[in-house]
Amino acid sequence: MQPLHILLLIAVYFGILMIIAHFTGKSDSNEAFFKAEGKSPWYVVAFGMVGASLSGVTFISVPGWVRDSQFSYMQVVLGYLLGYFVIAFILLPIYYRMNVTSIYQYLNNRFGNVSYKTGAFFFFISRVLGASFRLFLVATVLQYFVFEAWGVPFAVTVVLSILLIWIYTARGGIKTIVWTDTLQTLFMLGSVVIAIYFVVNELNWEWGTMLSEPSLQPYTKTFFTDSFLATNYFWKSFLGGMFITICMTGLDQDMMQKNLTCKSLRDAQKNVLSYSFVFVPVNLLFLFLGALLFIYAEQNGISVPVLDGKEKTDLLFPEIALNGSMGLGLSIIFILGLIAAAYSSADSALTSLTTSFCVDFLGIERKEAKQQKTLRKKVHVLISVLLIIVIIAFKYLLDSSVIDILLKAASYTYGPLLGLFAFGIFTKKEIRDRWVWLVALISVILTYILGSLPPEYLGGYHFNYELLIVNGAFTFLGLLILVRRQQH
């Protein structure tokens, strides 16, 4: 597929998003931008959240991860499922009862202003990194397969990507995103199913017997229970996945902002539960696609692309789709799926970061109505610029699978949020609020030191995503120390 054809396809796709933005952004009010006026149908939010959660990282990086990790990612996904139940029955009732715009307002009511700002700060860092990871991957694909041939610098590719998102979210915000995410999820799921169809036919496999094909077996081992010390041990992955979901969805303004646009708590709970059961088979499809791609590449002598002197398994899917011999159909399907997956998470991240900064740090709700809209628009631009800077920096810093790096980064940045919310929900104790920021900072430092220790120092134990639980525990224990000091 020629670079010009890819650009035309992207232009048509964004034209559709602009039409949706036109109709959903007519009011241009802060109530619509931040909370969609509380009128979103739960089933629309649920379907759209599938695309927002999976993102371009899942679309490209999960299939590319199969060679090195087989289907072990499903252990994490099963943990996600349990995490969604915690969100539906513990966190959502709290948010709806308090009628919050930003979920970190809970920390203000429970502990005080410093806890509130600390929680909002760690979300802000987490979501900037998370959104940047996702957009970095998509920008890399566009650069490698489109703009490189024209000599366009990577920085320009990034700016164009962010600019497009800014344009269609500037007026409607979350109200626009609830509906664009639905379209994007449809494109993404359709793309992965059709891609599997193309590859299975190209391999000349029978649909009824393909799961028993000998060449598939080396990739499909799912459960790893041999050694507790191993990185991919089942319970470490499962519990890590559960807490990753609790933090990256339930304690994340980006994901919860969509849930808070539902008409009632019951609708929001139906949204989360229905979405959670869809999430498991969808991830299994991505892993299955990854196995098929590596089998196809091996049979046809296709090498994993090398970028900046490093092998990038994340680029195998686009390499086969865009430069392979399966025709224009797969190329079109891949590009539609990629941009749908990428922008369904990136647009909501830009909106939620704008919301959090306006509400949590600038106190926009206390300002005059005339000032609020102007302030929101300025912050929207500044957050866009920040994302551009971070994504460009990642080009020189990242050297492994983006999905793995994303989940590991979450272990450090979401840990304090886990500890703060757990302490607030499961204890009745009051704390010395002014020292909470120090507890959170020390928790992250201790977690980093622990995670950086060579396995031989720990009896051969390899830390994985359970570092998130450890980080939350450090924060929880630190808050207990604050309580003891107050009681004396």
Please provide a written account of the structure:
- This protein is globular.
- About 75% of the residues lie in helices and about 0% in strands.
- Strand 1 and strand 2 (about 310) form a beta hairpin.
- It is mostly helical.
Q: Mind sketching the topology for me?
A:
Layout: H1 3-24, H2 30-35, H3 42-69, H4 73-98, H5 105-110, H6 113-145, H7 154-169, H8 174-202, H9 234-250, H10 253-259, H11 265-299, E1 306-307, E2 310-311, H12 316-323, H13 328-361, H14 369-394, H15 402-413, H16 415-426, H17 436-452, H18 467-487
Antiparallel strand pairs: 1-2
Helix pairs in contact: 1-7, 1-8, 1-13, 3-6, 3-8, 3-11, 3-13, 4-9, 4-11, 6-7, 6-13, 6-14, 6-15, 7-14, 8-11, 8-13, 10-13, 12-13, 13-14, 15-18, 16-18, 17-18
Gist of the model:
The protein has 488 residues and is mainly α.
Structural descriptors:
single chain, 488 residues, mainly alpha, two-stranded antiparallel ribbon, 2 strands
Distance between the termini: 71 Å
Overall shape: globular
H/I helix tally: 18
Order of helices and strands: HHHHHHHHHHHEEHHHHHHH
In the predicted model, the low-confidence regions spanning at least 5 consecutive residues are: none
Strand arrangement in the largest pleated sheet? 1-2
Q: Mean of the pLDDT scores?
A: 83
CA-atom Rg in angstroms: 22 Å
* Strands, total number: 2
How would you classify the helix and strand content by structural class?
A: mainly alpha
Give a short account of the largest sheet.
2 strands, antiparallel
Oligomer: single chain
Please state roughly what percent of the residues sit in beta strands, choosing from under 5%, 5-15%, 15-25%, 25-35%, 35-45% or over 45%: under 5%
Percent helix among the residues? over 70%
